[in-house]
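Dear support,

I submitted the protein below through the web form. The confirmation email said the job was done, but the results page showed an empty box. After a refresh the structure appeared. I'm attaching both so you can tell me whether what I see now is the final result or a partial one.
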Amino acid sequence: MIAARRPVALAAAVVLVLEAAGILLLNWILSIVVDRQQMSLAGLRPDAMSVGAWGGAAVAALFLLFCAAVLLRAALRDRAPGRLTRIALICCAVAHGVVGALCVGLVGWPAFAGMAVLLALLVFVLIAYGGRIPDPAGRPAEGPTGGGAPA
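What the results page shows now:
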């Protein structure tokens, strides 16, 4: 499992970058459709809806790019991500699980399969980099040394 974690982390990073680009492209197309057809939802102006679509896409794409950068750094250094970045990866995995479940009914099984593959990549990376790696120079690993909590 240790030998496969670097390529899996790299593959997950690449897929997240592609997904971020796809989200931006999809929302760009949707904003063009809303602007050209002058669609309105509950009295909202079409330009406000277009800007809102772009804003939501930008936030989602930045989060996915941040997670991809975390995975790329973990793969290049072959070290586990820190506590906060691990939480971000867990949030990304949970979001992909929820979106994958919604994809079954809304888009179909192929979209669900794509989300499930990405979820599996993220979970594999989180599990593979779960523990601290001992230093190759022979120094002890960081973290608790065992013995449990004081009584």
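Response: this is the final, complete result; the empty box was a page-load delay. The mean pLDDT is 86.
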